[in-house]
Amino acid sequence: MKLATKFIHAGVEPDATTGAIMTPIFQTSTYVQSAPGIHKGYDYSRAGNPTRTALDNAVAAIENGKFCLTFSSGVAATDAVIKLLSPGDEVIAANDMYGGTFRIFTKIFSKFGIVFHFVNMQDANNIKASINAKTKLIWTETPTNPLINITDIEAVSKIAKAHKILLCVDNTFASPYLQNPLDLGADIVMHSSTKYLGGHSDVIQGCLIMNDENLYEQLYFIQKSCGAVPGPQDCFLVLRGIKTLHVRMQRHCENGEKIAHFLRNHPKVKTVYWCGFEDHPGYAIAKKQMRGFGGMLSFVLKDESEENTKRVLSSTHLFSLAESLGGVESLINHPATMTHASIPREERIKNGLSDSLIRLSVGIEDADDLINDLNNAIG
Prior knowledge:
five-stranded mixed β-sheet, 13 helices
């Protein structure tokens, strides 16, 4: 089954009772049993819900995985992965990552005796120096948020497997349309489904996809026990979003490329971070493991003053100043004070995330209108 067909049909069947082509929203907390322990596959909606099951099946299919668990948010999915670990275990994580991931690692789980090492993963060999007998997990995202760095998933996977370490890849920026980390050797793929999977800025959700049944059972037990489950309405919205993921991502990529080149040629722009440039350090890897370069990019103005950066951020009309990404509408964001504010400034600066960095989530509007909007804002 080819990609476009898979996104519309995989994992979803017409409702057996009514023939409804769209999966029904099973808005129920509990299920009637014919006798104690005898039921039709569901007993309580924290443990399972038919709408959620349909979404699990669909996401597993489009990520080329056998199992999927959907969660109440992306960080809830991240939380479940770290709960596989025990006090004293160690994690090697990318030094360029979503601020919410950094926050849950350092502010929540470090208190429970889990040790995190943050490493530049643009060269997979950098990971080796941090591996020891206590290392149980490697966590990376590619492209990274917000500097659009690229990690060679296959290379990291070989290192992880050689040391019997789990590898989890945050695939949110790429989406299953552009990249499938399980095919490259990852053990777990994480998505903030809020972003490209949902695609319409109207739902908060996350998911984990894997092929190993034992790993799935462990993560299911954690989810069932801790309760970070999505509601059926949210599952329905993400199911609906997936049906148009391929056409949306095509436009995100087309618009992203046009805007990246426009910004690079603008006399008032200093640097543009986008993995589709042939001189991007990760271009060759991105071209190898991705089907396109996506709609996420960041840039820095030549005038890096706080006043000028804020002026541009507050002067767009089609690019809305807001957190999040991956919706049909374009967003502009200031990582230092928004999505990455939880990372200490000295850490951000050390990793290349300056106070003047501006991040764009390029939507599916007309590219010329978006370029005009940015041009007017930059002045």
